[in-house]
Design a protein that fits this description.
The protein is an alpha/beta fold. Helix content is 23%, strand content 21%. It has 6 helices and 8 strands. Strands 5-2-1-6-7-8 form a 6-stranded parallel beta sheet, with helices on both faces. A two-stranded antiparallel sheet has the order 3-4. Helix 1 links the parallel strand 1 and strand 2. Helix 5 packs parallel to helix 6. The longest helix is centred in the C-terminal third of the chain and has 14 residues.
Length: 220
């Protein structure tokens, strides 16, 4: 893998928010421990983007909106939807960024903070498209305007929002994608009907799509 080019590569930090870290409403194991290293890595890039889940209180991806148990699934007009605990509600502390992202200066360095998931009827894992796979966030065009052709992805969670973002970058936007695996953490849900769990499924998709999976130590 070629070295980082600070002027032509971008770092996209996926959902580094309190609700996805220990003590949060949808905590990902180990989520907090990657925030300081992510902040240090951000200093190596001229173009830093941070995505922010920004849900309405009645969001249709919330189990509470359907009287169902969290982590069950239902069919919505755009397809199957995992029902999550209420999380990252607009304006709450849980929706704010982890303190280490502020302390490192990464939030200040970000040229774009992209809010997603604010449409109450459609969830949005990917930084590029809502889960209807049709509604674009505009990130692809924004990166092309900045002459970015390769994006490094870090943050939460590896097998959902990070994975969907990296796959959309390659498959739909024609942008080279590198996932820095040790600067992510996974939810790791079991697959349905004997299907592989969400980590294995994501990594199979990475291999098929040409997403590079790397580590912090390998970045030069």
């Amino acid at each position: 893998m070629r070295p980082i080019d600070p002027a032509r590569d971008a770092l996209v930090i996926i959902d580094p928010q309190n609700d996805f870290c220990p003590g949060g409403a949808l905590a990902v194991a180990g989520g907090g421990e990657i925030m300081a290293p992510i902040g240090a890595l951000a200093a190596r890039f001229e173009t830093v983007v941070i995505t922010q889940d920004w849900h309405t209180p009645d969001h249709q991806s919330f189990a509470s909106a359907h009287g169902r148990e969290p982590f069950s699934a239902i069919d919505l007009p755009y397809g199957s939807q995992v029902l999550w605990p209420d999380h990252c509600v607009q304006g709450t502390e849980g929706a704010d960024f982890h303190s280490d992202l502020y302390g490192s200066g990464a939030v200040t360095r970000a040229k774009l903070i992209l809010r997603k998931g604010y449409n109450p009827g459609v969830d949005s894992y990917s930084a590029f498209y809502e889960n209807d796979k049709a509604t674009a966030t505009g990130l692809g065009g924004w990166l092309r305007d900045k002459s970015v052709r390769r994006v490094f992805f870090v943050g939460l969670a590896y097998d959902f929002c990070v994975a969907w973002s990296a796959l959309d970058a390659v498959k739909r936007e024609g942008i080279e994608a590198v996932v820095v695996k040790d600067l992510t953490r996974a939810i790791a849900m079991p697959g349905e009907g004997g299907a592989p769990d969400t980590v294995a499924a994501a990594e199979q998709s990475f291999s098929e799509a040409g997403v590079t999976v790397s580590t912090l130590a390998e970045l030069t």
